[in-house]
């Protein structure tokens, strides 16, 4: 009887046993060839939980004759690093696998980095966070490879499941298990590309199933019940969460309603209503903007309703808002205008405020030369209201244009007025 979980027992022993990740460690990759030729570079492995970072590190070590030392950055101290360095002095070279490397502290770094640099310690770091955001630059600079792993495809997961069912030493091969191809496909499609979840689900199914005449019978309802408990991946403080927010905004911007609703659902299941509401409001004004100005207040009302309702009902007004934004006319002209103005200011392109625009609500303002402002409301112009031809920008920026209208939706009307006013100004 095995004590270790199936997912632990079925870790690949060598790089030839790895399922998936062909873009990183396939037979045609440089990394595969380097390892086969006896050279292991220091590297960072980046990706979501359960997709094989730890397994890949163990497989790389298993493909060499080097000493392999696994540590976790959250629980290891300076003494653990010193032990790795001492081992390297004795054996000449070791592989250090450091999980959660983004939590590596400065004291650990100072102890280890010189030995990574001279090659006596080969560092394989694993992180679920974007290494360009969360891993110390000193570590990154000493890792020749930064490898982003992907979720496993269903075919890769089926390979792992079949291997676990057939392996008599590490897997379940000594048991007689009745499980159909359709049932294996359900497992592979229901774990969101997570190998650890797939193997854990298979092991849980066998533990929960009835045995008849020495044969374990897997039933469909058990698969559906257990898959429903797995949940979705989504650490609301992690990189994947921000990737989901990015995917939601880009799907709305691209008017793909089904994709946007999918990412909204994924985010809501991860449990962070606050950041979803905030992003939806940003999108209403950044991406829909002046082309459909009614959308902003609609989204604000939806997010307010979501906060009052809470989950799970909050999903209903938010779904309304997302679909409305997807199908609305779109303009980013206001976002681009304010970005251009701020960029101009930050680059030093500023000037003095014209005298007629300066504050005159105090005694002595005239002595400073303030005044001469003409009140536009006193000068009606058709149905537009009031307008007068006077200078508003500093003299050094009088010809600057930050706003460029987009010919979409309601902004078409605003664009026509904008262009007409520009013609009026030219007559001055």
TrEMBL record:
It comes from Sporosarcina aquimarina. SMART domains: AAA. The keyword NADP does not apply. Signal peptide: none annotated. Gene3D superfamilies: 1.10.8.60, 1.20.272.10, DNA polymerase III clamp loader subunits, C-terminal domain, P-loop containing nucleotide triphosphate hydrolases. The keyword Ligase does not apply. Pfam families: AAA, AAA_assoc_2, MgsA_C. Belongs to the AAA ATPase family. RarA/MGS1/WRNIP1 subfamily. This is Replication-associated recombination protein A. Keywords: ATP-binding, Nucleotide-binding. Residues 39-151 form the AAA+ ATPase domain.
